[in-house]
Amino acid sequence: MKYSMEEALNRIEKRSKALRSRRLRRNAFGWINASLLLMILLIGAVARRGRVPMPCQAFARYGASIMPAAAGGYVLVGVICFAAAVGLTIACIHYRNRHGR
Fold first, then answer.
1. In sequence order, what are the residues at sequence separation of 6 or more whose Cβ sits closer than 8 angstroms to the Cβ of residue 74?
2. How many CB atoms are located within 10 Å of the residue 24 CB?
3. C-alpha angle with apex 52: 51 to 58, nearest 5 degrees?
């Protein structure tokens, strides 16, 4: 035999850790890409709805005022982006705790 049993086990353990970290990194990049694509698609979907005609010109003076009928898409995008950010944060914390950084 070229090396002892301990050396062989150490090499196997080192290789399995390298494979595991590569797989976790690949999964993290996949989730990041998927959430970015989802965010872009949702923003595009809200933007395609177009502008809702204002019933009176008083609302046109205030840029921050959103009519209740048009607020649904913005709220939906905000909630989904917030949920994606929370999931990404939890994944990053889990990854950092697992690898002891």
1. 46, 66
2. 15
3. 105
For Cα atoms 48, 49, 54, give the angle at the middle one, nearest 5 degrees. 130
pLDDT digits (tens, 9 = 90+) for 58-76: 555 555 555 566 667 777 7
CA distance 16 to 48: 48
Query: What pLDDT digit, counting tens, does each position of 17-61 carry?
Result: 888 888 888 888 888 888 888 888 887 777 777 654 545 545 555
The maximal CA–CA distance of the chain, rounded, in angstroms, is 87
pTM (predicted TM-score): 0.37
Q: Give the C-alpha separation, 86 to 92, whole Å.
A: 10
* Residue 80 structure tokens: 């989904």
Rounded Cα–Cα distance for residues 23 and 89 (Å): 19
Q: List, in order, residues 6 or more apart from 35 with CB less than 8 Å away.
A: 84, 87, 88
